[in-house]
Write a structure and sequence with these properties.
alpha/beta; DNA-binding transcription factor activity; transcription; DNA-binding; transcription regulation
Length: about 350
């Protein structure tokens, strides 16, 4: 490797200006694809290594982004991060990852760490305990680009990427009704978070559309955990008329419900059907396989990065006000044995 290879060396080899080479290496829209390819080819031949520290000092940018996720133990968020990293690598950005462990104080620490590191932007999914959004509004006030994904708050005027949670919940509940279940319980999540509020609304709408009553005693307020699923089943079984199916707000809650049902020798799906939400990887490997709603996590990560890129590297042709921008992905149903009362599971 030639440690002294510089932008000037590449420019000389191609008979162009150093400024043209610099813009090409930074994927500037004003440089043709043909020139970009030529510059990259010569840069590779000369084994040119970009000095990112020096470049950051000159440009005032770090080409780093911060990503806050609620938990690294949840496969869904891992898939979102894969999508983010795929796009970040394409555009020359490094990803700094911080998990909040579902705690607002950890979110604040993560943001402080990102600001200290000089990130160019932040992607975040809210912790389930977050009700005060001051730390996120601080980022906005200081013009640090911020995009929410999955768990969002529409009232803050921050661009976001979500799945259609209402439609996903409606589809899950409609499926259970189609399988012959008539008393469908719902294990809900914290209602200050939009995604869980929308899933409850979708569940209710599907019941109403089928002429079935919405019974508040069949709605259990959970906290998005395996233990929450267990507690909900114990609650449902104490009712004079217990439900014959459960739509859980997410898959770990559904897993807890299934574990409790199995321990109590209640047959799934014959005596009680179960559907979750998120299509976590364990769902197809447990018995019976868990029916669930996929949220397209990798695509969510890619779309979130694209929104953030628009904010970090604004283009003149952008016509949509970014603080009003929202990308909504379609939910995809995966119905397996846990809800196949009519023998139609995968």
């Amino acid at each position: 490797m030639n440690p002294r290879a510089t932008i000037a060396d590449i420019a000389k080899a191609l008979n162009v200006t150093p400024a043209t080479v610099s813009r090409a290496l930074n994927d500037h829209p004003g440089i043709s694809q043909e020139t970009k390819k030529a510059v990259r080819k010569v840069a590779e031949k000369l084994q040119y290594k970009r000095n990112k520290i020096a470049s950051s000092l000159r440009s005032g940018r770090s080409h780093m982004i911060g990503v806050i996720i609620p938990s690294a133990a949840i496969n869904f968020f891992g898939e979102v991060v894969h999508g983010i990293e795929a796009m970040a690598n394409t555009y020359g950005y490094t990803v700094l990852l911080y998990q909040s462990n579902e705690l607002p104080d950890y979110e604040r620490k993560g943001i402080e760490a990102f600001v200290s590191a000089g990130v160019d932007g932040v992607l975040a999914s809210l912790a389930k305990g977050t009700v005060d959004f001051g730390h996120y509004l601080d980022l906005k006030r200081h013009n640090v680009p911020l995009v929410f994904f999955d768990r969002v708050n529409d009232e803050l005027g921050i661009p976001s990427v979500v799945v259609d949670d209402f439609r996903g919940a409606y589809t899950a509940t409609e499926h259970l009704i189609g399988q012959g279940y008539r008393r469908i319980g719902h294990i809900a999540g914290q209602q200050h978070l939009k995604i869980f509020k929308d899933r409850l609304a979708g569940y209710k709408a599907a019941l109403e559309a089928s002429g079935l009553p919405v019974e508040e005693k069949l709605i259990y307020q959970g906290d998005v955990s395996i233990e929450s699923g267990r507690r909900a089943v114990r609650h449902f079984l104490e009712l004079p008329e217990r439900p014959d199916a459960i739509f859980a707000v997410e898959d770990y809650t559904a897993l807890g419900a299934m574990k409790e049902l199995k321990e109590r020798k209640i047959q799934i799906p014959e005596e009680m059907g179960v559907v979750g939400f998120a299509n976590e990887v364990f769902g197809e490997h447990i018995s019976p396989g868990l029916s669930s709603i996929d949220q397209q996590p990798a695509q969510m990560g890619k779309e979130a990065f694209k929104l953030l890129l628009e904010m970090m590297e604004p283009r003149k042709e952008a016509v949509v006000a970014l603080d009003q921008k929202r990308v909504t992905l379609a939910p995809i149903a995966f119905f397996r044995q846990s809800s196949a009362r009519n023998g139609e599971g995968a």
